[in-house]
Amino acid sequence: MTLRRLPSGTIRARRRPRAIALLWLWELALALVLGTSFASLARETYGRHPDGDTPLFAPGGLALLDFLRHSLPARGPLLCEVLAVLAAAHLLGLVPSAAVFAELAFETPTRKAPPPRDAIGHAIAALPASFALSMVGLALQGVVVVLGGFFAGSVSTSFGFSLRTRDGNLIAAAIALASVAVALVVGVAVDLARAEVVRHETSAVEAAQKGLERFLLRPVAVTWSYTWRSASSWVPVGLGALLATRIGGRGGASLLVLAAFHQVVVLVRVAIRASWMARALRALGD
Amino acid sequence: MPRSHAPFFAAFALPAFLALPDALPTPETPSPAPEPTAAAQPFRSHADDVADYTLRARLDPEKHTLHGEGTIRFRNASSGAVHELWLHLYLNAFKNERSTFLREPVAGFRGSAPLADWGTIDLTTLSLRGDAGDSASGTDLLPTLDRPSAADTGEGAGDETDVKVALPREVRSGETITLDVAWDDKLPSIVERTGYAGSFHFVGQWFPKLARLEPDGTWAHFPFHHLAEFYADFGTYDVTLDVPASFTIGATGPLVESRRDGGRLVERHVQADVHDFAWTAWDGFRTREERVGDVRVRVLFPEGYEADALRELDAVRFALPYFARRYGPYPYAELTVVHPPEAASEAGGMEYPTLITTGGAWHGTPFSKLIELVTVHELGHQYFYGLLASNEVLWPFLDEGINSYAEADVLRAMFGAGSAVSGLGLTVSDSAIQAVFGNAAEHDDPIAQPAYAFETGGRYSSLVYERTGAVLETLRRVYGQAGMDRAMSEYTRAFRFEHPGPEDLIACFAQGMGGEAAAMLRRALFEKAWVDYAVVEVASHPHTAPRGLFDRDGRRETVAAAPAKGGDYEGSVLVERRGTLSFPVEIELVLEDGHRERVPWDGVGGSIRVPYRGPSRLRGAIVDPDRAVLLDDDLTNNHGTAADAERRGADLVLERATYWAELVVQAVAP
Questions:
Q1: CB–CB contact B670 A59 (8 Å)
Q2: pTM of the model
Q3: How many CB atoms are closer than 10 A to CB A110?
């Protein structure tokens, strides 16, 4: 199907609930791979308990610590699996992420959301450029954070010798925060470039130039748009923690309620991210 | 000294789970305070003075040196005559790499910080003072100074921490002598429990100190070992300290005299009924002070650590009266809590009479109770080390282990189930940490052995601190709070201002808790003993009349299977006890209809088959459902489900792990 570009001013995440739901399902699928592994480990031993794995959550944590101690041999394989899933989340995640960009940026001739197959087609076409931009972005962010960490550590240590630990820690924290802020700005610029790749089907280099150019037009506004969304995405997590403590979720209906509530938290966070992606597309203009 | 694995578990376990389940029955509820008994002996108020020190010391904080002089008054409290004196010069542990301390290849736990500057103590005067008619009066003892281990060619060769001098005449039982002493210290960079970092000075083991003379006339003397602490006689310490006027001093005992003298601050601290003296001086200290009962509590801390100091004061405010109720009144007027700067963290977590050191980051630890744990632990040492002055070198479990139990008891009363970690709905108790780490080391070494016999710091920590704490907590849970109160009350009364040994402790448990408990205590301490309860088999089936050939009324009849009656089931549960310890436990039978029954087992045999007959099928069984036996090596086999029963799975773990995995996936997603 031939898709047409939406005018940038009309791009809104709330008009693409299906895309948000599909991205949530993708992340849920990845997380279930890990969740199932941890649950299998618990099932090996506490599956035989008349109360299931409830004792692992008993106050005091004795059964949990004992379980962790006896599960140490599984630590290596589990860690490998976690790393593999996280790598997949980032690399394979480029496709659903680009597909969401496509869903947001285009519409059908009948002014409907693009069918998922077409959005994914766009995403796959954009994959080489998205991958290149992502890798360059990660490398830059890595360098910034490592250098920041190194300087922060050095400052903290040098203040430690003069016994002004708190001063040293505070300055080190400021340096670390500054490096994270720079890494965040890099991430924002990369997001603009990835959006450009999908929206205008450009090469990685052209997209990087355009992304940077558009970012530099209004750097503060764009960065702020990202930052407040990113910060607000932790609000549902905090609320979730508070409510989860009250719900309990030891089993039966309360566990189902808790699970549903947790998924709402995750879905809200996906929606906030989609909102940022729409904002990135709007920043690119027409 | 403290230990804590709480931060490790906080980092490892906290992110794994979010929601707290509804309240479950837990043995983590605070223990009631012991009821005073009319027949109980009063607690002694004073120690028997044996070694009194009157010392003066002047600190040069630029060179990190100290000149000291004074007198040591020693009374031969043993049954025999004494012909020699043993002295500990423990700063020489940091003199060179021939010292026992630096030669012992012990890794982990404490004392592993690289030594950036050496430390020494040089005796310049040691002479005997006597009556006018005493021909030995004024005898210089230094020419007779002998460093036996320094002359050795074997292990410990070159160590200068444990020396003896010959006396010109014997000192009879009950006789008192006075020694004049002078010495020079060079403090090391901060290591273990002494030294400097910048202008911060923590001064421990800084004077020539008499070893302890045992009642039979033998000297209990030791070189300074890597993992070992101390042992000494009680006495009165009258110490005058001279530091730059800009410095703040914290020291053992109350301040009785203070003056400024030409840019110097001179303070005199006097404390009776103690067996050591330590002090600190720094120009960066802030102070907070308050009275807790009759005790003046003073906290010294670096700038910016006010929040920690408040937490430390809170902990002392709670723990001091708590300890007093359990183990007798705190007999001193003063308690000084020192929070060293982070660059001198090796000075943190240490106990001296009326002076303890703590630690922790200035920004606190939001989920962990580490600051309170260290403070309470060191405060507990005022009893288990301070008042009950056991030999820390030979039997470190008597101070560190019992004190770990006492620490967990106080923290449970303060914080409940989250006595070590509490946050994001997860609680971890200090006792649980002690149990799991102690059990992990149960086959490595016996608990009851000298500190220097432990090959690694990890084993020492896991067995001396954690496992001893878990052994005592197991006895409390299994044999009851009342028995524990009786045993500990007897121990802390009978041996207050004394030097108890392992047999004294075991005798108190035999008296307060019974012979069976005492036998388990002995085995757990001395024999690398362990235990693991396991549910091996759970089965039930409908009850039917016996089948087969039966002789009745002179005839042989064949009885075939009769149809089972509904609501009548029989079966059994097989439970095993593995290992060399045994404790009475309960076995909980869980029925399909939701009912539960508990059956007691004395735990003496290797196994028990618990018969069952009832209106519902057996679904499963749990041995020790209340988790009384913290020493149980493996809790993952303490339960079983019948083969024909539906398994419950691990839905909670699946839900929480999936949720947290989603959050992590979102963090790395593009």
A1: no
A2: 0.91
A3: 6
